[in-house]
Amino acid sequence: MKTSRINDPRPRPGGPPGAPAVGCDVVTVSARQGLEAVDILRRGPGDAVGSVLHDDGGDTLGFLVPPGTAAAWDVPGSTCTETDGRGPTLAPEPPVEGSDWLLPPGEADLATDPAVLREALGEAARILRAADSCR
């Protein structure tokens, strides 16, 4: 399992000269499923999880994925939003008002491989269904 690092040599709008341009899409899921997926990805080989946002209300997590992912994203229970190059930057501040980093850039690769994330979200959903059926 690998994550994708976005290495675009173009300057980021508003960023310092030589800073990479960054425009990730964002996969949003419920916090419960997302936290389970983060655990699954962190237990995998290598650095399988990229940067992850959480909302201040604690209801959702947002996984940064490479640009263009939204065009083919079809995982039930999640949405993938295009950022059109306006996505998260390498700045320490979260890119979305009312959110904060669960795994900030620098502590993780910037973007999670969408195929790896798809598998982890599916496994997380199965684990949560099994746990809920035991109640």
The tally of strands reads 7
Oligomer: single chain
How would a crystallographer describe the biggest sheet?
A: 5 strands, antiparallel
User: What is the helix content?
Assistant: 10-25%
Largest beta sheet: what is the strand line-up?
Answer: 6-3-5-4-7
Distance between the termini: 33 Å
Task: Point out poorly predicted stretches.
Answer: 1-21
- The structural class is alpha+beta
Instruction: Report Rg.
Output: 15 Å
Strand content: 15-25%
Q: Count of DSSP helices?
A: 2
Shape: globular
Features:
five-stranded antiparallel sheet; 24% helix; 135 residues; alpha+beta; single chain; 2 helices
Précis, in short:
This protein is α+β, with helices and mostly antiparallel strands and about 140 residues long. It is about 25% helix and about 25% strand. The strands form two sheets. The protein has a five-stranded antiparallel sheet. The protein has a two-stranded antiparallel ribbon with strand order 1-2.
Architecture blueprint of SSEs:
Elements: E1 8-11, E2 20-21, E3 25-30, H1 31-43, E4 52-55, E5 60-65, E6 78-81, E7 99-103, H2 114-133
Antiparallel strand pairs: 1-2, 3-5, 3-6, 4-5, 4-7
Give a written overview of the molecule.
The protein has 135 residues and is of the alpha+beta class. Helices cover 24% and strands 23% of the residues. The protein is built from 2 helices and 7 strands. The protein has helices at residues 31-43, 114-133; strands at residues 8-11, 20-21, 25-30, 52-55, 60-65, 78-81, 99-103. The protein has a 5-stranded antiparallel β-sheet with strand order 6-3-5-4-7. The chain has a two-stranded antiparallel sheet with strand order 1-2. A hairpin with a 4-residue loop joins strand 4 and strand 5 (60-65). The longest helix is centred in the C-terminal third of the chain and has 20 residues, at 114-133.
